[in-house]
Amino acid sequence: MIRLAQMIMGPVRNRATRESGSALLMSVLFTVFAGGVMLVLLSVLLSQAQSAQVAQKNTRTGYAAQSGIQSALSVLRSNTKTVGVGASAITYGDPTKLPQSLTGTVDGDGDGTLSYTVELQYFEQDPTGQSDAWLATNAMPFPLTDDPGAQPKFVRMVSAGADSAVGGLAESVGDRTITALYGFTTTNVNIPGGLIHSTDTASCLKAATATEGSSVAMVPVAECNDDQVNMWVYDTDYRLKLASTIGAPTVLCVTGQEWVPTPTGTNNSAVDATLRSCAATNDDAYGNQLWSWDFPGSWVGQNRDNDDRSQRWLGLNGTTLVENTTKTGVFNPTPSVGAGGASHGTHQIVNFSEFGRCMDVTDAVISKNFMIVYPCKQDPTGTGDNMLWNHKWFYDEPVGAATSAPQSLSVIAPGNVTYCLTARPTGSGNTDVHFTTCNQPDNVASLSHAQKFIRNADTGSTLTSYTFQLADNPALCLAAVPEPGYAWSHIRLLTCNGSSAQKWNAPAITSGSTLGGYKEIG
């Protein structure tokens, strides 16, 4: 029996041994196969690692470029200046503080590698869709100025995001560059408020206090250092106001004699001119707060009924401001004091840079060989009958179009004789303008080439808007040009340059801010 069992078990052990060897072989084969697959997968993963690193960097630098745009916006919106004084002060952007470029790191760490660089170009015209050549030609020169006639309306921001190199590639691989366009909130409104000098500019008018009843005196110009009490506005309602009180609950006006109860009552003696609360309307002002600039250099008051001048002028008693019957030229207001009620509606042409001054026939002598801009004369009655002829310049504003046809600029001198503004001969070297006769100013065919001007309204270009161009040579524009040693600027024909000195009767224009035009360029 035992022998039989041994004979039976022997073949079983041999079969198990054979099966064990097959399993080992299969394990080896599987290990080899799995290792091959892993090598293939590793090769695939390694081949994609570089691309993944670049993609991650691309995302980071995109955010960095966007951060550059936001940082630039913050800088553009925070560079400001305050214009005006007291309650009338207004905060505006200051173009002289705007940057040409800026850099930074996203995490704020100076040693950080994720950074941005922003280049800024400023334009007066919308640069959207323009070529690189156009952008280079039309970008405003840097640094910018505070000339109100040449303000940036758009800024093109080119922001480059960068980070350290990845995957052994060049450092710039994965960097991104985007552009955006920001349109400024702009206004070309002039901010009134300036000094009223003596004729020799050695002194200026200064209120004792910015309160009701204050006296006003002429003090040395070195003492004109408190804008609360020495800045004045000659406003459109024909009143001289202390600038710091405009916008306050009580606006203070230079006030002359207190009228006696009867309309015919007058006061022939000198009275101190003081600061009083401005009357609600001109009808309530009784003439003692209504003033007209008068030759040779003072303001004359209106009568009680505001139908004529009172023949009482502002002057000085020693250094104290008074109203009296003596007509003396003692004042020289800076242009920023204002133009009063002067406008095209009163047949006056106000300069935009010297915005308290109007085109003037020099000394009211038509034969003068140069014309000036002079403090704008006034007529508070609204009739124009009490304003001297030499400030009434006639022309037509364009209607329904940006540019007029050629026309004359004319005045009507004593004797009812009409004269037209005339340019000097080309090549003469004399840029002053003067007047010559023209019997039919509205008949363009009868005018000489030197008497024809083109009046521009808003042409869409700061170069030509609100200018007078010589029709025979549109490259020339009328401009107010300061004359050394002379109190008043000359009117000259100069090459058009878009400056505020070449703009006349220009309205205030305001546009809102915009941000857009995002585009990736690298």
What's the Cα radius of gyration? Answer: 39 Å
Quaternary organisation of the protein chains: single chain
- Taken from the alpha-carbon principal axes, the silhouette is elongated
Number of strands: 31
N-to-C span:
94 Å
CATH architecture of the largest domain: Trefoil
Strand order in space, largest sheet: 3-4-5-6-31
**Which class of secondary structure composition applies to the elements?**
alpha+beta
| Share of helical residues | 10-25%
Largest sheet: 5 strands, antiparallel
Task: Look at the structure and give the mean pLDDT.
Answer: 83
β-sheet strand percentage: 25-35%
**Name of the level-1 CATH class of the largest domain:** Mainly Beta
Total number of distinct structural domains: 3
Task: Give the low-pLDDT segments.
Answer: 1-9
**Helical run tally:** 4
What would you say this structure looks like, in words?
It is elongated and about 140 Å long. The protein has 522 residues and is α+β, with helices and mostly antiparallel strands. The N terminus is likely disordered. The strands form eleven sheets. A five-stranded antiparallel sheet has the order 3-4-5-6-31. The protein has a five-stranded antiparallel sheet with strand order 14-19-18-17-16, with no helix packed on it. It folds into three domains: 154 residues, no CATH class; 141 residues, Trefoil (Acidic Fibroblast Growth Factor, subunit A), CATH 2.80.10.50; 164 residues, Trefoil (Acidic Fibroblast Growth Factor, subunit A). Strand 23 and strand 24 form a beta hairpin. It is built from four helices and 31 strands. Helices cover 18% and strands 28% of the residues. The longest helix is centred in the N-terminal third of the chain and has 77 residues.
